[in-house]
Amino acid sequence: MHKEFSFNEAYYQRYYNDASSRVESDAEIAIRGAYVCAYLKYLGQPVNSVVDLGCGIGHWREVLHRHFPKASYQGVELSEYLCQRYGWQHSSIGKFNSAKKYDLVICQDVLQYLSKSAAAKAIKIFDDLCQGVLYFQAMTKTDWAENCDQDFSDGDVYLRSAEWYRQRLRKYFTNLGGGCFVSRKSNIVFYELEAID
User: Fold this and answer.
1) Is residue 124 part of a domain?
2) Which tops the pLDDT comparison, 1 or 101?
3) Mean pLDDT computed over every residue of the chain
4) Does residue 88 contact residue 112 with C-beta atoms inside 8 Å?
5) What is the pLDDT of residues 49-75, one digit of tens each?
């Protein structure tokens, strides 16, 4: 590992709960969630089952409940602290397996904490789990240098290029932009120019 990651109460207090140091505001979370959910509706993707890999304090659960109130939500989290507090399933992405296939797989801001081999394995696991759409986001080298506020972001991570992620994702998914990747196994129809690659 890059460092001894300590996903304890202090980590989540700093990056998620404390308004003076948190990475995202409630408004930003709501806007992103509304966008993703609207795009899923536009694509005609039913959302009955969701797995959130590295779910943190569960922002996505609240958003999805507003837009898809009947969808089942499975939170998976490495932090024992969060699993005890919120009841998530305790697992790393690399060890999580499920016979169930999900309409929506979410993995936001997790893979930058994994080594190259572990991150590549996680992307294969996304394919194993996803029968519809993957929402994926990870901080890249360029994001750290140019896009994120370094005072509010954890920079002690593995910084890779966006192309490193895209190269591995495109084997299993079509990139439709905005963090939405359609499984190549799905029956979703989209226009050619809606796809980025």
Assistant:
1) yes
2) 101
3) 89
4) no
5) 999 999 999 999 999 999 999 999 999
What global pTM score does this model have? Answer: 0.88
Domain assignment present for 104? yes
DSSP for 118-160, written as a single string = HHHHHHHHHHHHEEEEEEEE---HHIIIIIS-TTTS---S---
Asked whether the beta carbons of 47 and 104 are under 8 A apart, the reply is yes
**How crowded is the C-beta side of 2, counted as CA atoms within 13 Å?**
18
Q: How many domains does the chain have?
A: 1
Asked whether residue 30 is domain-assigned, the answer is yes
On the question of pLDDT at 117 being above 80, the answer is yes
Alpha-carbon distance of 47 to 40, in angstroms, equals 8
Residue 1 reports pLDDT greater than 50: no
Domain range for 188: 21-194
Domain assignment present for residue 16? The answer is no
Query: In this structure, what CATH number is given to the domain that contains residue 163?
Result: 3.40.50.150
C-alpha radius of gyration, the chain, whole number: 16
Instruction: Give the confidence band of 163 by pLDDT, cuts at 50, 70, 90.
Output: very high
Q: What is the dihedral angle through the alpha carbons of 73, 1, 182, 67, rounded to the nearest 10 degrees?
A: 30
